[in-house]
């Protein structure tokens, strides 16, 4: 009995230590396990946040992402590796199945190490494309660190991201901060709606083959230039699994986490690489931007019975949904970003109503959104549908099915209270009165007298 209680306590403690809503099992794939010493500060921050780290190389024989159909890990980090392929256990198919099973991946690349074929093909499946030669250094002759990259101009010093757009949560907004991205490898994004750019290259940057000299760069042969190049991007699949792409793995190393850098004509300032790495991994490993539906209620307006299965046409109903947002280590009320709306559809084959839900109650851990409306004059099978899909937050797709019946024979309003029926009621009354009057005249009229007798 004591051992059982101890086991329960240990399991509860393990669950409490995992600050990620998706679990705490994290696998870091490196070219050599000893390479983790260069990322000690970055990996130490992950351990402090409750992740249980494992380290493997692509050549590890015992490395398996799945066991009897279940994930062995909740999250993966890929650091640059010199091997062209990642082996039979990390094929593009395995990695794609890992994402389909709800696993999260962070891919950190470097221009000094070509991306492996598994990573290249995985990103291609996600509509993210790397240079054809599997490498490409992003340089900028105006936004580089004047001390460490005085000649190569391959250590970019860029402004940290700000709010992406009004309707997107500002998980990466760091106004006034700068980032140092040494030897970054750029990528371009396709047209998929699941992609969100986090950090774009400046308009003066371009990607070239480092084996070539600056003077030999042909503009027609550039992989991409300017804001076509992305240095950090996010992918959130339909099942809310996440893949983050970082173009500079070196920015995660101890030497660059808090380095002081300066652009041309500017004074030195401390790079916010550590804070950006925290926000990137926090989002990728589902420590932020996770939405939870606590409860859904619909009822006849003014009644206490919740979630009935059948309504009547033209009923006045109330609908409410309670949503929480996970932020690092706790659930907080979900607040819509500026200009955004969450909508309710009351639909059969197509929506009969599409209404904005408004906050009606805010508690310590949740926000209740609600709306009142009148059901349409149409009977059938209807759905209360909330489909909220936005960049950087997990999807909310909730459907409740109800029946809407027509009015019973004793539920129709009486004709005498309908003003539009008065002409017809008057016509009926006139017809009945005329018929009764005709009958009365006919019944009580004296027959005509017969003619006199003949002589």
Structure characterization notes:
One of its GO terms (biological process) is protein N-linked glycosylation via asparagine. Residues 304-446 form the OST48 middle domain. It is a single chain. The protein is an alpha+beta fold and 455 residues long. Helices cover 18% and strands 31% of the residues. It is built from seven helices and 27 strands. A seven-stranded mixed sheet has the order 2-1-5-6-15-14-12, covered by helices on one side. A hairpin with a 7-residue loop joins β26 and β27. α3 crosses α4. The radius of gyration is 35 Å and the shape is elongated.
Total of helices: 7
Q: Report the uncertain regions.
A: 1-17
Proportion of residues in extended strands:
25-35%
Distance between the termini: 135 Å
Tell me the radius of gyration: 35 Å
Shape: elongated
Strand order of the largest sheet: 2-1-5-6-15-14-12
**Sheet with most strands:** 7 strands, mixed
The overall average pLDDT, rounded, is 87
Q: Strand tally, please?
A: 27
Pathway: Protein modification; protein glycosylation
Protein name: Dolichyl-diphosphooligosaccharide--protein glycosyltransferase subunit WBP1
Keywords: Endoplasmic reticulum, Membrane, Signal, Transmembrane, Transmembrane helix
InterPro entries: DDOST_48_kDa_subunit, OST48_MD, OST48_N
């Amino acid at each position: 009995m004591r051992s059982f209680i101890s086991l329960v306590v240990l399991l509860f403690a393990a669950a409490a230590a995992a600050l990620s809503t998706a679990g705490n099992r994290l696998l870091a794939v490196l070219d050599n396990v000893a390479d983790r010493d260069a990322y000690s500060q970055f990996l130490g921050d992950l351990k402090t946040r409750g992740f249980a780290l494992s380290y493997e190389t692509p050549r590890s024989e015992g490395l398996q992402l799945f066991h009897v159909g279940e994930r062995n890990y909740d999250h993966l980090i890929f650091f640059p590796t010199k091997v062209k392929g990642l082996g039979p256990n990390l094929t593009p198919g395995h990695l794609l199945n890992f994402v389909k099973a709800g696993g999260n991946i962070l891919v950190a690349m470097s221009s000094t190490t070509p991306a492996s074929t598994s990573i290249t093909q995985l990103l291609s499946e996600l509509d993210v494309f790397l240079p054809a030669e599997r490498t490409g250094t992003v340089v900028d002759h105006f936004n580089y660190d004047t001390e460490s990259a005085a000649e190569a101009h391959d250590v970019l010093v860029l402004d940290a991201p700000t709010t992406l757009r009004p309707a997107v949560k500002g998980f990466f907004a760091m106004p006034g901060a700068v980032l140092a991205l040494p030897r970054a490898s750029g990528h371009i994004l396709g047209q998929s709606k699941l992609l969100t750019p986090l950090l774009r290259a400046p308009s003066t940057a371009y990607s070239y083959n480092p084996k070539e000299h600056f003077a030999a760069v042909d503009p027609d042969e550039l992989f991409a230039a300017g804001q076509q190049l992305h240095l950090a991007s996010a992918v959130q699949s339909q099942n809310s699994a996440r893949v983050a792409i970082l173009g500079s793995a070196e920015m995660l190393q101890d030497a660059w986490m808090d380095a002081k850098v300066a652009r041309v004509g500017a004074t030195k300032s401390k790079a916010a690489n550590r804070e950006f790495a925290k926000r990137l991994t926090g989002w990728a490993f589902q420590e932020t931007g996770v939405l939870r539906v606590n409860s859904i209620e619909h009822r006849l307006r003014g009644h206490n019975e919740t979630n009935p299965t059948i309504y009547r046409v033209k009923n006045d109903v109330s609908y409410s949904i309670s949503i929480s947002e996970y932020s690092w280590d706790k659930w907080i009320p979900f607040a819509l970003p500026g200009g955004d709306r969450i909508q309710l559809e009351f639909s059969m084959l197509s929506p009969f109503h599409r209404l904005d839900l408004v906050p009606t109650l805010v508690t310590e851990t949740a926000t209740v959104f609600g709306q009142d409306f009148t059901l349409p004059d149409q009977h059938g099978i209807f759905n209360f549908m909330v489909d909220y899909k936005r960049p950087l937050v997990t999807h909310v797709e909730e459907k409740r099915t109800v029946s809407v019946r027509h009015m019973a024979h004793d539920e129709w309003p009486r004709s005498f209270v309908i003003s539009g029926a008065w002409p017809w009621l008057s016509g009926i009354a006139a017809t009945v009165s005329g018929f009764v009057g005709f009958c009365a005249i006919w019944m009580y009229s004296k027959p005509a007298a017969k003619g006199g007798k003949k002589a």
